[in-house]
Amino acid sequence: MGLVNVSKEGQTWQIEQRRVDKVINEINKKEDQLALRATDLKDSVIELRETFWDDVTVNLDEPDDVIETEASIKQQAELLKQKELVHGNIDDERKTLKQLKDNPYFGRIDFKEDDESSKEALYIGISSLMDAAEEDFLIYDWRAPISSLYYDHSLGKGSYETLDGEVTGEITLKRQFIIRNSQIKGMFDTGLTIGDQLLQEALGNNASTTMKSIVSTIQKEQNKIIRNEQSKYLLVQGVAGSGKTSAALQRIAYLMYRYRKELNPENVMLFSPNPLFTSYINNVLPELGEANVKQVTFFDYLQDKIGNKFTIESPFAQMEYTLTKTEDIHFNRRLSNIGYKSTLAFMKLIDEYLFSLLTEGVQFKNISFRKEVLISKHRISEYFYSLDKQMTLPNRLELVVRWLVKELRPFQKAEVKKDWVEEKIELLDKEAYVKAYYESQKQENESAANEELILRKVVVAKMFGSLKQQIQQFAFVDVSGTYYQMFADWKSDNKPEEWQSLAKQTKKNLEKKHLYWEEAAPYAYFKGRLLGHTSDRQVRQLFIDEAQDYASSQFAYIQHMFPYTNMTLLGDINQAIYVQMTKENPLIPSLAGRNAERITLTKSYRSTKQIVEFTKHFAPGNEEIEPFEREGKKPRVIMVNDNAEVIKRINEQVNKLTEQGYESTAIICKTMQESEIIYSALKDHMDVTLLSEDTYSLTKGLLIVPIYLAKGIEFDAVIIPDASSEHYTLSERSLFYTACTRAMHELVIINPMSPNVFIKEAVTSTYEQIIR
Ligand SMILES: Nc1ncnc2c1ncn2[C@@H]1O[C@H](COP(=O)(O)OP(=O)(O)OP(=O)(O)O)[C@@H](O)[C@H]1O
Could you tell me which residue ranges the UvrD-like helicase ATP-binding domain spans (predicted)? Predict the structure, then answer.
């Protein structure tokens, strides 16, 4: 069944436009009502603030009166808070209405339930809207159970799930709208599930610097991901451009709607691959009428857990090293370090070491005050190991904290009499002096006669206060020293063969307070198990995009940190660009585990059919890859004789692409090193931007970017400046594949000398070869 473009001149168009007008009219009325409520509320908040103290009974004579006064203040404050909250909700509602006014809905289906005699026309938009009587839905939220009909079915029999069971019936009409500025711009009747025109249009547009919401064209298989509610772990393996990120964002919006009473933005977190990606997707949720959720890179998350005493290598620096420093004398050692520390075997070894620490080995630091050791590390260790051996390490440390605080008391008392305190008192400025004095009086209830003693106590208490605070934060535990010991004296039969050389490098790094990327998650895990984790209970839904880039040890850490959290992992094994990532990846079916459900997406929407047909032949995995039927030019493979010609060809191709109206072209290089070389060669001739790890937002125009930073992002056209066999070796298949699949409309590959093995694998009819 095909697609019918509803004619602008016809009656249907007019009827639908009249309905749009009616809905807009309703929105206008609701806006007016809300504006009125907002003004009333604002006035009453102002008044409440002004008269706040009038309604509070202040009486501090007797303890009972104080309690009453406190209660009275609390009550007033609560009232104010509630009003402000309602005001915030009104604001949100007004924002949504404004969005609806521009584009009230994008779909309609006529559905006749099996038990009903008449059909109902359902209009679907980003948020629901009731009529004035609050009886009928003028618009259904796309996330309502009934809206599933629109995404999952074509004309004929259809059904949707509700809490009370399945509702079945017949779909007699399915219509798509493009409405902008309250005017219908396009209208299509379709018999297919939403493939077709609207999707063609959406995909045919130029790439934008921010991701778009796909709400009006969600595909059936994507809808399954979005609405999945059963699985604790939802694993999505989807080929490049299959809409994983898009579906993830729609899913966030869906869950926030479905569990709107329980789920706030703080309860949802997304690990994104880099800051550029974070800004790239930032507008999708607001477009859907939802607030943004917590977004963080895994690097930042680890940095936060490890603390700023360590520098941590970024994943990109690790990548750059493995790609460019193959001549380094320690290169192989580094590779085996990455290999081993990425495994679960290493995490198990850490567990074994932690177990041994129950009987000996935890390192401590002296507790000193003004350069004098008050409590030595040996005493702390003695106390620690005198505690019940059955207790966990963190529980024992809690007891040590209490013991230390008690032990400090006599020292604090003794310090009060020392000479240095006098100097400190003299240094107090007048204001601090008075404050300290009154504070001390309040606390001690002593007479002013003993003024000096009081001030002495105050000064010492303040300094000991910060000491105690450090103790409470376990500053007396030498975490890195204890970790170091694992690589120094500790004995185990389960160490890998290459342990000696790995240990040497690890110790060197720890001495410099530096952690390689592969070491960061294991170290954070160790630190947490030793000191006690503050596991992230607040996060109820965790989303991990580009999940193929996480090592097993990193996943183990994440699972450990979020034991009660539901997770959605999205990735593509074909794009596993980090050396350590192929083994034990949870996206691989056999590793999915009991609580997990795995969904595969095989259709690629980003690139034209021609690009997908070309790239799928050298895709690393065995996954099926199906193109969406969108026509374009065949990829161009330009053979050149020498490097000097490369720059000339880039110039020529960029001009060609710009002439065709493409707004974003990326020259995608294998490494930052290569990106910098190309950038220096081009920057004086053309307007070009080099993206780096620290780039926080995407711009249009001509960009140069290493592959690992272009992950998850797309461009109108992609130029690969050096696809020679010397530059891309067999092991770099995923890198090359990832680079090619960033292109939406055009792909240009330049080959100085011989083409790489992947191009040779592609069917020759799928690309155009240009020999100079
Ligand atoms: N249902 C859809 N309707 C409209 N556009 C879609 C749909 N699904 C995907 N797209 C578009 O396809 C492109 C790729 O989507 P997305 O970036 O979400 O894919 P991905 O699987 O995360 O890709 P990759 O793994 O290659 O980074 C985007 O431009 C997105 O808007």
Answer: 217-608
Strands 367-369 and 372-375, sheet pairing: antiparallel
Q: What is the pLDDT of residues 144-194, one digit of tens each?
A: 999 999 988 888 899 998 888 899 999 999 998 889 999 998 888 876 545
- Which burial class, exposed, middle or buried, applies to 461 when counting CB atoms under 10 A from its CB (0-12, 13-18, 19+)? middle
The rounded Å distance from CA 663 to ligand 1 centre is 19
238 is an annotated ligand-binding site residue: yes
Check residue 1 and give its pLDDT: 41
Find the 108 Cα to ligand 1 centroid distance in Å: 24
Query: Of the candidates 326, 400, 342, which has an alpha carbon nearest to the alpha carbon of residue 578?
Result: 342
Per-residue DSSP letter, 708: G
**Ligand 1 contact via 214 beta carbon (within 6 Å):** yes
Rounded Cα gap, residues 501 and 45, in angstroms: 68
Task: Kindly state the tokens that stand for 132.
Answer: 């004035």
Name the residue among 490, 477, 488 with its Cα closest to residue 352.
490
Residue nearest to atom 16 of ligand 1 (CA): 243
Domain covering 609-771: architecture: 3-Layer(aba) Sandwich (3.40)
Given pLDDT bands bounded at 50, 70 and 90, which one contains residue 446?
low
Over the stretch 408-424, which tens digit does the pLDDT of each residue have? 888 888 777 777 777 77
Q: For residue 219, which amino acid is it?
A: Q
Type of residue numbered 76: Q
The residues that bridge with 245 in the sheet, in sequence order, are none
Residues whose CB is less than 8 angstroms from the CB of residue 289 and which lie 6 or more positions away in sequence, other chains included: 95, 96, 99, 126, 127, 253
Is pLDDT above 50 for 389?
Answer: yes
